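Revision sheet: structure tokens.
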Amino acid sequence: MLNVSIEASGALARLEAMPQALHAALAAQADALRLQLQERVKDDKLSGQVLRARTGALRDSIASDIVDENGGIAVIVRSSGALKYAAIQEFGGKTAAHDIIPSKAKVLAFVSGGGAQVFAKLVHHPGSTIPARPYLRSSLADMKSHIIESLNAAVVKALAT
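Predicted:
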């Protein structure tokens, strides 16, 4: 049997403070990583690497939070808002057949596959298969090693003080 007793009050106080110091160090590092991950999604993946911005709405919808509760720390990077196409771009999927009607004009105007200008009051869209274009998951995968190294360094630094 192994019995350990610590008599030095300074050492005991240091050991008792370790969980709070470690938690604080990890929370600070997680917050820094949250911002880096959000920046990677917006400035790399949604600025040409995976998707090219047309309006910038998807890029502008990227938000992040840090949740620190019940002794656990979580980082959330997501598309906030009501963009209907955010999830289908990330995961892929199929759209159902549907009608397209003009919302701001009397007719739709577009160029046909043959190059002719077409005007229509209604278009019957057959539906689409959208391939996955992961911008969130691929950013996390790209940063995986950096995240692990950063969190490990924060732990080592917190335990050394």
